[in-house]
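#onboarding

Welcome to the new folks! Below is a worked example of what a typical request in this channel looks like: someone posts a single protein sequence, and someone else replies with the predicted structure as tokens. Don't worry about understanding the tokens yet, we'll cover that in week two.

Example request:
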Amino acid sequence: MAKHQYADYSVQDFDKFDCLKISKWVYLTLIFVLRGYVIWLMSVTNFKDRVGIIQWVYPDTSLFYLSLGSGALGIFFVLILSLRRPNANTWVKKCWQQGKVIITLALLFDLGICVVGFFYWHLLSLTWLITQASIVTALIIILNISKTISLNIAEFPEKLPEK
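Example response:
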């Protein structure tokens, strides 16, 4: 007898549209891809020293701008994620169906920017580049083998009948 695909989940694992809540790995991946924006937001909210956090994490301002550029696909996926609701436009549904591809491309684009930063502009250390490649590889593997993420991508919220 085959096991139901939702058998491992409890009622708390579902949202108000009876869809499985988005995997924490998706959010972790987005934080990694959007780390430049996260650092920027942290610096904006620091009223005493707005530039100090950016300079501490990104000693060279070019690294900061590269990080913002590499997060562009991540911003697009956050937009898709925020528009994921019943009665969404068809383009949102089609983009959501390609969610794994978008996140994977965002990770690879981010890694590509770092590779260019290392070889062309000599902005990164080899240690950071290897660490970056390891993190990207691990996240891509997790995104592609996770049953929860596959279910997340397969589902799209639909309007539930009122009781």
